[in-house]
Amino acid sequence: MKSLIKYKGIHPGIVIERELEKRSLRKRPFALSIGESAQTINNITKGKRNITVGLALKIEKELELEEGSIVILQSYYDIKLEKDKMKETPNLSILRKSLFWDTDINKIDWIRQQIPVIQRIFERGNDEEKNETIRFYGKRKVDSALKSRSTKPMRLQINQRKNVL
C-alpha cells in the first residue's frame, strides 16, 4: 500500500494501465477475465470513468494487489478533484476573457502564476479589473509583482576603452 501512495491524486486507471503493461496483459482479455466489458476497462485506464468498490475488488484480486489499494487511490483522486474545485479565484465576471486571450481563463492557477497575471492586468486591464486584482491578491502582493519585472527596458550601453600605450 505504501508504494501506491506515490500515486496519490492520480487517477487509479493510470496505475492499472501501468500494471497491465508491466505484466504484458491486454485490456480486452483482462476485462473478460474479471467479467467486465473491454470498454469499461478502457474508459477507466483513460481516466474517463471512476472505479466502484466492487470493480476495484475484482481488479485487485485478479492483479494480486493489496485489497483496498485501488479504492484508496480513487478516494485520493476524488479529494484532489474537490480541492481543485475549491481553489479561490478572483471574480471572473469582472475580468474580461480577452485579457487572457492566449489561455483558458478557467484553467489559470491564480496562485502559482500570480506575478504574470498581475502584470498583465495592470498592463491591459481597466480600473475595475485592477481593483479586483488588488482585492484578490492584496496591495502588498500586487506592488511586489509590479516591481519584479522579468524583462527590463533596454538601455544603450557605451563601452569606454582606455587607450593603453
Give a short summary of the structure.
The chain is mainly α. 52% of the residues lie in helices and 0% in strands. The protein contains eight helices and no strands.
Rounded mean pLDDT score: 88
Describe the main β-sheet briefly: none
Question: Helix share of residues?
Answer: 40-55%
Q: Could you tell me the radius of gyration in angstroms?
A: 26 Å
The count of β-strands is 0
Order of helices and strands: HHHHHHHH
Distinct helical segment count:
8
Poorly predicted ranges: none
Overall form:
elongated
Structural class: mainly alpha
Gap from first CA to last CA: 77 Å
Percent range for β-strand residues: under 5%
Word description of this protein:
52% of the residues lie in helices and 0% in strands. The protein is built from eight helices and no strands. The protein has helices at residues 12-22, 27-33, 38-45, 53-63, 69-86, 114-124, 127-137, 139-147. Helix 2 (27-33) crosses helix 3, helix 6 (114-124) packs antiparallel against helix 7 (127-137) and helix 6 packs across helix 8. The chain is elongated, with a radius of gyration of 26 Å. It starts with 11 loop residues before the first helix and ends in an 18-residue tail after the last helix. The model has no long low-confidence stretch (mean pLDDT 88).
